Amino acid sequence: MFKLAINVFMLADLVLGVLAFYGAYFLRFEGNIPVQILSSFTSLWLCYIVVKVGVLRLGGLYNRIWKFAGARDLLFLVGALFITSLVMIAVSYFWRIAVPRSVFILTFLLDVFFSGGVRLIPKIYHERGARLFNISNGRRVLIIGAGDAGFLVVKEMLRQENSKLVPVGFLDDNQQKQKMKILGLPVLGDHRDLPRVVKKYDIQEVVIAMPSASGQVIREIVESCRKVKVPVRTLPRMYDLINGEITVDLIREVKLEDLLGREPVQLDMKTIKASIRNKRVLVTGAGGSIGSELCRQICRFAPSELVLLGHDENPLFEIEMELKERFPEAKLKTVLADVKDGERIEGVFKKVKPHLVFHAAAHKHVPLMEDNPVEAFKNNVLGTKNVAAAADKVRVGTFVLISTDKAVNPSSVMGATKRIAEIMIQHYNEISDTKFVAVRFGNVLGSRGSVVPIFQEQIRKGGPVTVTDPEMRRFFMTIPEAAQLVLQAGGMARGGEIFILDMGEPVKIVDMARELIRLSGFEPDRDIAIEYTGIRPGEKLYEELLTEQEGVTATKHQRIFIAQKQEFNYEELEKLFASLTQQQYCKDRKGVFALLKKLETKPGSFKSAKEQVS
Fold it and tell me: For residues 277 and 274, what is the distance between their CA atoms, to the nearest angstrom?
């Protein structure tokens, strides 16, 4: 088949070469070719087509698959035809044949048009023509967003011969794009015109191709689609696009995080790359939600080695397999170990000698930790002490603790243990050559055991969806967003900081429940009931990101702040942390809070990060 295509193109080049050569004479002499010029015409056109085919063959123009051709291939063709024209000028000079130079210029231009055009036929057919035969079987799709993402996704739809998606047009809020055409498809209005366009053009599906769109815009589009009863899907958010590539395969159902969407994270790639590239990086809790996403993001920046440490073999194995598939060049080391085992952790650190550590291993479930304070203390406090001590002994460059907003004015065992861990790493920063920092943020959407998967399971069973209190609010961000900001904070570390991520405005849990019910195709309170169960032990109606004593200072990154450092008696802290044992402080809930009381002054009222900066 490939040899046949070569022969077809070669024959076409011969015929088109003659047409281009004759056409040049015809245009130059306006149809009246002089007899003395015409006498040399036959010998010259024979020479031209031989030279042309020879140059194209030497240039590899017959070894290309033209249905995948791009601008580079066409430039090679233009170059080959230009060389052919130069050779013909030289031939006419040495043979002393009187031919106007304009003939060769016109021949070149006509042959570029003819030979280039015939080579574009397979490409046009591949990208659009073949779809004409399948268009009646495809779903008529309206693309929301006529920017780069919309262009790329439509290009992919047109290119894939077996695609069942037939793009009809675009909607875009940019008024300058109205009534313009992109890839031959019209921009039919803005997103508020969706109901009219769906009805007029018999749209069967809507695809949102705006990775940077705000949650408000996404909500409006989803609501419009719901009213006209047309399914809607979307491309991922910008921080979900790990490699930045956009394909049809990435189109997915709209998720809750899309409706709560915030401005995409603007990363200082240079800072992050400098902190990770060619460094040995160790992540504890690598099988967890945040730990596994940190590993995915870290692999983008080419560490010399990434060590995945965790105590649960199944999720650890899963993330290892995923990373090997997605980043085959990455050097990975998987370590099955428990942070509560200090001797084992120290041995791992001595063997690996990491430059950078992200400590994400922790028990995080508030009600469960209320019933199991011993395990919470051992894992979140003693485990952190073991990892920090090992990092200090092998002189790790930077140690980053993943903390939580529940560590502020804690009302739960989990929050208290994380606050103790924060104070501990600030203490280690004073006595160690390692830079110890913490990163504090709120809830992450979709993490295991979080509210979203619970709601989804309740909806799947037909309800009711249980919410603790109608006024309960929480800070939320997506897992990729949180992981990227953690890496950014790690790259900014100077030692001793508690970084606070800008979580935006707190969200009512009941509002999230209603949105999830609607996304599942039901109406809240009509199809799926919502029940209020009351606040559980250790929970608060509102979470906080700062104590009054801390205050906050801005950083060069608009989404990251630094809690102002509290003063501690580090000599007393050293004695206290040196004497930590399970028996002293973690027999019960009171013991944990007694330790916290020894470590810090009475917490004050909350002020938001933006209020403190302003």
Answer: 6
Q: Which residue intervals of the chain bear CATH 3.40.50.720?
A: 133-254, 269-445+475-503+547-613
pLDDT for 295-320, tens place per residue? 999 998 999 999 999 999 999 999 99
**Strands 530-532 and 139-144, sheet pairing:** unpaired
Distance from C-alpha of 160 to C-alpha of 145, rounded to nearest angstrom: 20
Neighbour tally for 15: CB within 10 Å: 12
Cα 564-539-513 angle, rounded to 5 deg: 105
Q: pTM of the full predicted structure? A: 0.65
Mean pLDDT of 321-331: 93
Least confident of 214-223, 232-241, 397-406, 460-469: 232-241
pLDDT 10s digits, 70-86: 677 778 888 888 888 88
Rounded CA separation 564/554 (Å): 10
Q: According to CATH, what is the number of the domain 133-254? A: 3.40.50.720
pLDDT of amino acid 606 = 31
| Predicted pLDDT at 143 | 92
Out of 3.10.50.40, 2.60.40.420, 3.40.50.720, 3.20.19.10, the CATH code matching 269-445+475-503+547-613 is 3.40.50.720
Give the distance, in angstroms, between the CA of residue 404 and the centroid of all CA atoms in the same chain: 23
Q: Dihedral sign, CA of 309, 311, 314, 315? A: negative
486 Cβ contact partners less than 8 Å away, ≥ 6 residues apart: 290, 294, 358, 400, 402, 439, 501
β-bridge pairing 435-441 and 498-501: parallel
The residue-averaged pLDDT of 592-597 equals 70
Strands 507-508 and 165-171: unpaired
Range with lowest mean pLDDT among 225-239, 558-572, 594-608: 594-608
Residue 602 binned pLDDT confidence (cut-offs 50, 70, 90)? very low
| Pairing label, strands 435-441, 398-404 | parallel
Active site residue 406: yes
Return the pLDDT at 461: 85
Comparing 404 with 506, the larger pLDDT belongs to 404
HSE toward the beta carbon, residue 547, CA cutoff 13 A: 18
Nearest to 160 by CA among 126, 137, 189: 126
Nearest-angstrom CA–CA distance, 9 and 14: 9
Percent of the chain past pLDDT 70, that is, above it, reads 77
Is the omega angle on the peptide bond into residue 186 within 30 degrees of 0, that is, cis?
no
Given the residues 255, 340, 364, 406, the one annotated as active site: 406
CA angle 319, 325, 329 (to 5 degrees): 105
% helix, strand, coil for the chain, step of 5: 50, 15, 35
Quick check: 244 pLDDT over 70? no
Residue 397 makes CB contacts below 8 A (sequence gap 6+) with: 279, 355, 356, 434, 435
With residue 325 as reference, give the H or E element that holds it: helix 313-326
